Amino acid sequence: MLKNWIKSILKDAVSEYFDDSDGRSKGIKRRWRYRRGVHDKPLRVKPRSPDDNIIVNFTGLLVDRSVSLLFGGEKDVRFDLPGDGETPEQAYIDEVWQKNNKAEMLYDLADYGAVSGVCAVKILSDDDYPDMQVIDPETLEIVVDQENIKKIIGYSITYTIIEYDERGNERKLRRQQVIAPDEDTEGKTWLVHDYKQNRHGKMEEMEDSPVVWEYEFAPLVHWKNLPLAGSQYGRPDLTEDVIEINDAINMTLSNAQKVMRLQAHQRVWGKMLGTMNISNWGVDKILTTQSPEAEVKALEAGGDLSGMREFAIMLRDAMMSIARSPDPSTFKDKVGQITNFALRVLYKDALDKLETKRRLYGDGLRELNRRLLLLNGMNGDAGRVVWDKALPEDDIAQINALTSDVALGIASKETAAKKRGYDWEDEKERISSEAQDADNIGGLILSRFDRGQ
């Protein structure tokens, strides 16, 4: 019965092409549009009229900051596997990631996660080193057990390809890959079904499909960008409320732009002018009249530009707070006065969010490495993920703290050396050698002094 149920799910997945009943795909498309700076224009523009719309892409800035904070440290993220020295497992994992352009792949994962809420990597078998393909979450559907959301029933990846007929006409055709456990082996292997859309618009299974994946784990690993209870997809950094605030900022700035354009030049009005003469005086002109009751005045500028500016700043602060992203512009004039502790206090919310993401991404990357090791017939212990420091350290403050700890006897010189990034064994040998050289020089000086030299 379970086998028939899985088959019915796969059949429905193919026939429905992509289940977007909850609007997930539509939401991801909109977030990608905003992330790239293509926002909805707040003001309508009449034909042959100036366009006063101003688009400030804070949504893209938030995603860039999130990606850089996660993977943009001075040191690359490292995978520290068990064992001393360069073990075969360590060398293999490092080589696999190098072959797959580690930095670019990690940035892509963080970008997809920040926009869509989920990250996914598909493992493609290869003779020497596996290829790892970052999956666009918009094309991915994760099918889970309705009674146990942690139990994966299958994956569906749906995308579009372009083909040309004999006349050179372009046609867009759907492709779909469905990955599910093989019940005949009691879940010890997985089946990879490939479907394509024929010229009549129907989905049909391709030749050599399904392909058996001879492992208990799927050839696809996914994890959440941020926690979202009750969902297998996770939460993005770029949420709907953040987008709406960015729209409000664009509206405020666009209205200010329109006010300045309409009132860039003074509009003069007059009454009881009677007969007037115009006299040239440099680049300006002077109006003269003989009427004693004549008045010439300028229209006062409308629109509170300073109020608009303050409102835009308030919206930006609210946006950064909701997104849990610190805004350096709020304390850029006080950088020299801020201590490392104060900086951590200011960045606390962002650091807490970063720690949450590091745990989720770390679990996903370790699971990916575990499967890579097992594919190569190695021990599946993936060790740990080593992250770079989130904030720059104050060297002077660190040195003073370590000096105090060593003087109090609560820390050794070896610990202090490691904290400062030195190799203690090498440094200890050098210190001993320098001390011996100093003793030799001191003895030579004393012996010569005794001889009256």
How are the elements arranged and paired?
Elements: H1 2-16, H2 24-35, H3 58-71, E1 78-80, H4 88-99, H5 102-116, E2 118-124, E3 131-134, E4 140-145, E5 148-164, E6 170-181, E7 190-197, E8 203-205, E9 211-213, E10 220-224, H6 240-262, E11 268-271, E12 276-281, E13 284-289, E14 295-298, H7 305-322, H8 340-346, H9 348-375, E15 384-386, H10 395-408, H11 413-419, H12 424-450
Antiparallel strand pairs: 1-15, 2-3, 2-10, 4-5, 5-6, 6-7, 7-8, 7-9, 11-14, 12-13
Helix pairs in contact: 3-5, 6-7
Overview of this structure, please?
This protein is flat. α3 crosses α5 and α6 packs antiparallel against α7 (305-322). The longest helix has 28 residues, at 348-375. It has helices at 2-16, 24-35, 58-71, 88-99, 102-116, 240-262, 305-322, 340-346, 348-375, 395-408, 413-419, 424-450, and strands at residues 78-80, 118-124, 131-134, 140-145, 148-164, 170-181, 190-197, 203-205, 211-213, 220-224, 268-271, 276-281, 284-289, 295-298, 384-386. The termini are far apart. It has 453 residues and is of the alpha+beta class. Helices cover 42% and strands 20% of the residues. 22% of the residues are buried. It folds into 2 domains: 1-263 and 302-392, no CATH class; 395-450, no CATH class. The strands form 5 sheets. Strands 4, 5, 6, 7, 8 and 9 form a 6-stranded antiparallel beta sheet that branches. It has a 3-stranded antiparallel beta sheet with strand order 3-2-10. A hairpin with a 6-residue loop joins β2 and β3. The chain is built from 12 helices and 15 strands.
